[in-house]
């Protein structure tokens, strides 16, 4: 069984692409908060407690306006609704993680979910420890980036508009890597074409939760049929 150092190094290597994206975008968020008139403590504490990057950018804008808790609640639920489906996918993986489970749930960002779900952990490593370490590292990257951005925001003149595309680019790279490692591409192509179809029909506001819901239904039906087929055999 691998020791702590070996587990840390394995998780660190897997999280390196996330570190690049999180530090860069976290600094962008910290700078953006500074430009909105908040000192570095605000982005640092928000990154530490909210841990939903897209929501944090939205909240930063709402903090400069009249406080409307219902609007904040509704926007947050819509933007973060995808995490409900992430949770369904991780029920088995997080089921027997003991005291690590609360933090694994809290730290399940888009990128952390993708890594913990897709990483093939060698037999000599404890999978629970690897997932926990990846989650901690990703949390550190994001909070550190937000703190640094807040600290240096007043010293750097930068236009943060459009920089959030860095995470889109990161997801494209991760998706491509997973696509190339798949034995068949049914799930990837289903997700791609269903997403494009729903986006064309509903627009960008609601296509994410609708797409995720339909994907869960489709694969739940397929899994049931597969179980019946094996039972029949």
Automatic annotation (TrEMBL):
The chain crosses the membrane at residues 12-32, 44-63, 70-91, 140-158, 163-180, 192-222. Pfam families: AzlC. GO terms for biological process: L-valine transmembrane transport. Its main location: membrane. It is found in: Cell membrane. It is a multi-pass membrane protein. The keyword Nucleus does not apply. GO terms for cellular component: plasma membrane. It comes from the Bacteria. Keywords: Cell membrane, Membrane, Transmembrane, Transmembrane helix, Transport. Belongs to the AzlC family. This is LIV-E family branched chain amino acid permease AzlC. It comes from Fructobacillus ficulneus. The gene is azlC2.
């Amino acid at each position: 069984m691998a020791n702590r150092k070996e587990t840390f190094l394995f998780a660190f290597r897997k999280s390196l692409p996330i570190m690049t994206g999180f530090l860069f975008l976290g600094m962008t968020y910290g700078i953006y908060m500074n430009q909105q008139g908040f000192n570095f403590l605000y982005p640092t504490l928000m990154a530490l407690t909210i841990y939903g990057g897209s929501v944090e950018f939205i909240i930063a804008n709402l903090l400069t306006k009249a406080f409307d808790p219902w609007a904040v609640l509704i926007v947050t639920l819509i933007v973060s609704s995808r995490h409900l489906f992430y949770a369904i996918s991780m029920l088995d993986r997080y089921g027997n993680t003991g005291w690590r489970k609360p933090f694994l749930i809290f730290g399940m960002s888009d990128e952390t979910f993708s890594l913990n779900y897709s990483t093939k952990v060698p037999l000599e490593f404890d999978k629970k420890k690897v997932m926990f370490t990846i989650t901690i590292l990703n949390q550190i990257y994001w909070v550190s980036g937000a703190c640094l951005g807040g600290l240096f925001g007043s010293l750097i003149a930068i236009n943060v508009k459009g920089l959030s595309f860095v995470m889109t680019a990161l997801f494209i790279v991760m998706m491509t890597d997973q696509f190339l490692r798949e034995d068949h591409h049914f799930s990837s192509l289903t997700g791609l074409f269903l997403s494009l179809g729903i986006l064309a029909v509903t627009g960008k506001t609601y296509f994410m939760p609708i797409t995720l819901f339909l994907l869960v239904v489709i694969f739940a039906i397929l899994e049931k049929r597969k179980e019946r087929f094996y039972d029949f055999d």
